[in-house]
Design goal:
A 13-stranded parallel sheet has the order 9-10-11-13-15-17-18-19-20-21-22-23-24, with helices on both faces. The protein has a five-stranded parallel sheet with strand order 2-3-4-1-5, with helices on both faces. The two termini are 44 Å apart. The chain is 38% helix and 13% strand. β9 (507-509), α24 and β10 (533-538) form a beta-alpha-beta unit. α4 runs antiparallel to α5 (90-112) and α17 runs antiparallel to α19 (393-408). The longest helix has 25 residues, at 59-83. By secondary structure, the protein is an alpha/beta fold.
Amino acid sequence: MMFNELFAGEVVTELLQQLNDISRKSCFYKSSALSLIRRIEELLPIIQELKYSGVELPAFRQSQISRFSETLRGGLELAREVLGSGRWNVYKNVQLVRKMEKLEKHVERFISGPMQAHLLADVHHMRFETMERFNRLEERLDSMNAGPGTSGRQGMEAEEDSNLGIFGGIGLEIGKSKVKKMLIERDDLNVVGIWGIGGSGKTTLANEIRRDNQVRSYFNNRILFLTVSQSPDLEQLRANIWEFITGNEDISHTNNIYLPQGKSQFEWGCGARALVVLDDVWSLPVLEQLIFEVPTYKTLVISRCKFPKRVVNEVYEVELLREDESMSLFCHSAFGQKSIPPTGDATLVKQIVSECKGLPLALKVIGASLQDQPEMYWINARKRLSRGEPICESHENKLLDRMETSVECLKKKVKECFLDLGSFPEDKKIPLDVLVNMWVEIHNIDEEEAFAILLELSEKNLLTLVKDARAGDAFCSYYEISVTQHDVLRDLAIHLSNQGDVNDRKRLLMPRRDTELPREWEKNTDQPFNAQIVSVHTGEMREMDWFHMEFPKAEVLILNFSADEYFLPPFIDNMPKLRALIVINHGATEATLQNFSVFTNLANLRSLWLEKVAVPQLSNTTVPLRNLRKLSMVLCKVSNSLDPSVLDLPQIFPRLSELVIDHCDDLIKLPLSICKVNSLQSVSITNCHRLHELPADLGMLKKLQILRLYACPELKTLPPGIGELVGLKYLDISQCVNLKCLPREIGKLTSLEKIDMRDCLQIVSLPTPTILLNLKSLRRVICDEEVFGQWRNLEKAVPDLHVQVAEKWYSLEWLNG
């Protein structure tokens, strides 16, 4: 098959159309469909470049394209099958989802493999392009000119960042193509952004764009590049920009600078097109002062921070390097060539490259630090990187110190929260609920402020929020959201936390999982440790594996491990101020906890998170947690702990306000004594597939405001006593597929504000309108089409009520365990 027959034909176009239909109509396949759309669209600019290059492809490359063509044709047939599949045929849908994921991997493999070869097809063209880039690099180094608004360290950093793009590969070309389209083809976009983590190549991309011939031609070679920095001279920058836009060279040389405002600026917009590139922008108020309302020019903003759409109309988020691109850049810095030399240890090199996680600056700095070093130095570097430690002074100064600039501008409390993120394992999602609980307990803030801090860190690219499709609404659970962080940022948090004597650190952390506790800790056990947060990450721990340690100031203890059995650390007895305990097993099965008697001394514990453990039997004598406010059990075995014959919950947890039980597959019914825990305000029983009934006296919980019963398929009825929950504001019964009806008593819930009853397949009729009219506080209902009309009739009588049909959404997490 010839190149044009595949890519100029209808296969790609039709497949994209089918995938778009799938993403709109079926949430079961939405994730894979959107990923495939993104991947295939990423190919288009590369395809166009090859199409019009005039290159005659060799036979073996044509065979690669032919195989990929068959993959796409198979994908087209699969897409048609997906669109024709019934939504309630769960087994077939699961099989089709897996086929979609397989197709996604095939496309990804093609992009990662053969496509790279295609990009090098025209050897002469690529040689010319590479030499041109090297020439430009030499010119930049020879004529390093900070320009207006650039000074000192910031100017050097921007220049250093710009040197990262020599081996940018496909990622750089795709980013360049997307930003060019925003600047040239979108007249509705006046301000465009490039956003990314520090050291990810933002400035590199901006420099490639401003030197692009098509961009220069479009803007008539009128492109101004300014570095703003954290402490800019705003008056001078504004004058430089206005001088550039108007062509009035006298403005910046006068002491009486007049810059028109608002509509007056717009009236100046009669000149030629122009582009202003603002690099290293840190603040929204600063950015707003550097944007003028002149229609004939555009602004390209480069920043680590995310700005609102009203200011920056559209943003391209810089992607980190793929594995092959990472290897090329690292080898160029370490060996002066694009691949591992024959004398190099390929395994060792790959391990070190893997630690850089695709961050260009890390690859460049660490590679240069290892240049011409002996093998033992490389081995030590790998070990230090795995512990989150700098490998040498150059690594610390050029990478970690530079990354630290992202943290220096944070308010003290926000910075402390950022540093707390180093307490969690690498490459693991952190449940937001865990973070919020921890921050509330140790930073003296409420949940709303904790969430605001999280959003600020996300907007500054210091962490990534991973949302469940249902998250974000009022009353949503924080465990529907999780947090991830690039390893270099995590290493920065650990690096900053590990400064000073080990006994005086505010955070005592194990950066990576190990078979034993750090020797540094053992050597200093003669003195108390003053840490506020203690984080341990090991495999199986027996009693003899622990040593005596005292923590008079510890308020948070995080225990991460992978094991079938785990002996809780005896030093918990020496944590009199402990307020939050997090126990997370990353092993394949629920771990048996030993030494549960240490809980008898946790008089001040307020938050307890248990994940993938077999919870021991709870009793008033072994676990008198008088001050516990929040108990979370996730992926746990709980049948022992919730034995109603021995469990007296109000005696054990007299102040418990929030109970979370999630993915606990042996929970059949709740203990009756739960109805006597008068302090409960929130109960979440979710994804418990064997739960078949609720206590009849549930209505005794007069303070209960939130009741989640999401995805409990064996639950068939709600007790009539639910009508006595006079304080209830939110009821979630979604995906309770065997729930027969809403009880008549629901009309007594006069405080109820929101009901989520999506995917309640058996509920086809509601209580009478007379009963539902009593729900005076109801503001939002999420339901299926079958009952939408009945709820819609209520909208006319209940002010401010909004009824919506839920978008179908499915979770396949249950397939993993």
